[in-house]
Amino acid sequence: MRNWLSHLSLVALLAIVIAATSGCRSSRGIARQPFVLVVDAGHGGNDQGAAGRRSLEKDINLKVARRVCKLIRKKCKGVEVIQTRPDDEFVTLDDRAGMANYFGADLFLSIHSNSARGWAEGTETFIHPSARGGRGEHMARLIEREYSRQGGRKSRGVKTANFAVLRKTRMPAVLTEIGFISNRQEEKFIKSKRGQKKLARCISDAFARYRKEYAP
Ligand SMILES: [Zn+2]
Fold first, then answer.
1. Is the dihedral of CA 183, 203, 98, 158 positive or negative?
2. What is the distance between the alpha carbons of residues 182 and 190, in angstroms, rounded to a whole number?
3. pLDDT 10s digit of each residue in the chain, 216 long?
4. The pTM is what?
5. Measured in angstroms, how far is the CA atom of residue 24 from the centroid of ligand 1?
6. Residue 167's domain spans which residues?
7. Which of 38, 56, 102, 115 has the highest CB neighbour number within 10 Å of its CB?
C-alpha cells in the first residue's frame, strides 16, 4: 500500500500537523470530539486544471479554498480544518481521499472551477451517485442555495458524478464548481478578490449551517 505522506512536501505536512493539533477546545479546556473538515483545492502543481483566458483553475481553487478555511477557522468552534494542499503542489486524487480517510474526516469539501466548450454559466455541486439522500447531498444543496442567495450566482443545482475523490472518501463528500473559467465574465468574477471573498463566504456559511444541523 502506498503511503500518501511520502508524497507531501514538508510544508504541506507541517500545515496538516498544525491544523490537526490546533482545533478549537472548549473554554473549560476539555477536548470534545472535534468535527474534522477536509478542504480540497482541486488540481495543483503540474496539474493546472482548466485554463481561462487570464487564469488557471488551480490558482483560483487554492485562493478560494484558503479563504474558506480562514473563515471557518474564525467562526466555527470545535472544527479542525485540514487542507489537502495548502500550496501550489501536485497531490494525487488517491492521496486527497486517503488523507480525508486517514484523519477520519466528517466532511470532505473539494473546490473546483468549471469549464465547457460552449457557453456555460453558473455554479454546480456534485455528490457521488451512491450518496443521494444523505448528508453530502444536503451540504451540496446548502452551498448551491448560498451561491444564488447571497452570491448572486446562477445555480445549476446539485448533480451526481463518479469523481474519484467522491467515490474514494468514506464520509459525506461534495465537489463544488464555483463558476466557469471558460466564460469570460465568470472568469473575471472568480479570479477577482471580491468574487473569491463572496464565494468563500457562501461556502463557509453553508458549512456553518450544516455543522449546526448535525451538531452532536
Ligand atoms: Zn477541476
1. negative
2. 11
3. 445 555 455 445 444 544 444 443 333 444 568 999 999 999 999 999 999 999 999 999 999 999 999 999 999 999 999 999 999 999 999 999 999 999 999 999 999 999 999 999 999 999 999 999 999 999 999 999 999 999 999 999 999 999 999 999 999 999 999 999 999 999 999 999 999 999 999 999 999 999 999 876
4. 0.87
5. 31
6. 4-213
7. 38
Distance 49 CA to ligand 1 centre (A): 5
CA atoms within 13 A of residue 52's CA, in its CB half-sphere: 24
Identify the CA nearest to 126 among candidates 82, 81, 89, 173: 173
What does the alpha-carbon distance between residue 94 and residue 40 come to, in Å, rounded to a whole number?
12
Collect residues with CB below 5 Å from ion ligand 1: 42, 49, 112
How many domains are contained in the chain? 1
Pairing of strands 173-180, 107-114: parallel
Q: For residue 122, give the CATH number of its domain.
A: 3.40.630.40
